[in-house]
Design goal:
about 170 residues, alpha+beta, 3 domains, 3-stranded antiparallel beta sheet, about 45% helix
């Protein structure tokens, strides 16, 4: 398993309803998202309410109010993820960063493939500066495993990646 999968397990253990609802977890605490609970009532019940705040009329003529799911603090969440990781055998723990590194390299290769056509000798760049910017960007992608990845000093199982920024022309290439 990679670090993201441990985060997902930690989320499901700390917030059991997250597994049944739409949820998302990622490398960082800030990536967590859990679909809120909701309450739906008919128009008659809505009219009888003393506090109507938060209710929205929906397309069916009923009223819905979203109730956010309470998430644990960042410290509690990260402690749970580390607890799950540390419960694994050493071989599994050592392999977490290796798997994340392989995912980063795979993502990097996809970005290189998406820009291969720009390196054809007769590609019509508007200027030599823009062509050189793409050459530098692609070189930075190739150098990424050496210069753009490091272990998070706060969490030895998380890989920090600094992705190079692609040039703005042509738009929406990567």
């Amino acid at each position: 398993m990679n670090f993201r999968e441990y985060n997902k397990r930690a989320l499901y253990e700390l917030v059991p309803k997250a597994e049944m609802r739409g949820s998302r977890s990622g490398q960082y605490y800030e990536d967590i998202m859990v679909q809120p609970d909701s309450v739906t009532i008919n128009a008659t019940a809505y009219e009888e309410l003393s506090d109507k705040s938060g209710y929205v009329l929906n397309q069916y003529g009923t009223y819905t109010k979203e109730i956010p799911v309470e998430l644990p603090t960042k410290e509690v969440f990260e402690a749970k993820a580390l607890e799950l990781i540390n419960a694994e055998p050493k071989e599994v723990r050592d392999n977490i960063v290796v798997k994340d590194r392989k995912k980063v390299i795979s993502n990097r290769n996809i970005r290189l493939q998406k820009t291969d056509y720009l390196m054809v000798s007769d590609y019509p760049f508007p200027s030599d500066e823009i062509k050189q910017a793409w050459v530098r960007y692609r070189q930075a992608l190739r150098d990424l495993p050496v210069t753009g990845m490091s272990i998070d000093p706060e969490n030895q199982y998380r890989l920090l990646v600094t992705w190079p920024t692609p040039p703005i022309w042509p738009a929406n290439v990567v």
